[in-house]
Design a protein that fits this description.
Layout: H1 2-7, H2 21-34, H3 36-50, H4 96-116
Length: 140
């Protein structure tokens, strides 16, 4: 699931090393419905906050946020609580896959600060056009 979030690949295009894509998809849907993802996020946030690695100051400046035309008519009903026969909410706590995922998510969050820092030798992302008259004109 982390691979898909990171790469944006379609479910059907998951590498075979992750197993059948249907299994990964169904587990993701089940964990979304029963609150497992929310619980994982809360645990990771609490651990990172306790370690002093979370900056809770967020600034958003916007007067309007436009939705895409396809955003109209989205499903309003929440997903069903259980996707499996006999499944109950909150039964994933002892799941070894969930424990490994929580550990991996903590590793990803811990290494996120390294991703944010630009490399010292990396080139600038934008270079301004020459102002001395040499080179192409900025007009199109």
């Amino acid at each position: 699931m982390l691979y898909r979030v990171r790469t944006g690949v379609q479910w059907r295009d998951l590498p075979e090393r992750f197993g059948p894509w249907e299994t990964v998809y169904k587990r993701h849907r089940r964990w979304s419905a029963d609150g497992t993802w929310k619980m994982l996020l809360a645990q990771i946030q609490a651990a990172e906050d306790a370690a002093g690695r979370v900056d809770w100051d967020v600034s958003v400046v916007s007067t309007a946020v436009r939705a895409h035309q396809h955003a109209a008519g989205a499903r309003r009903a929440p997903l069903p609580a259980a996707f499996q026969k006999g499944a109950r909410a909150g039964t994933n706590e002892a799941d070894p896959v969930l424990r490994r995922l929580a550990v991996r998510l903590e590793e990803v969050v811990a290494s996120a600060s390294a991703w944010d820092a630009p490399a010292a030798a990396s080139p600038p992302k934008f270079t301004s056009p020459p102002t001395d008259g040499a080179g192409p004109s900025p007009s199109r």
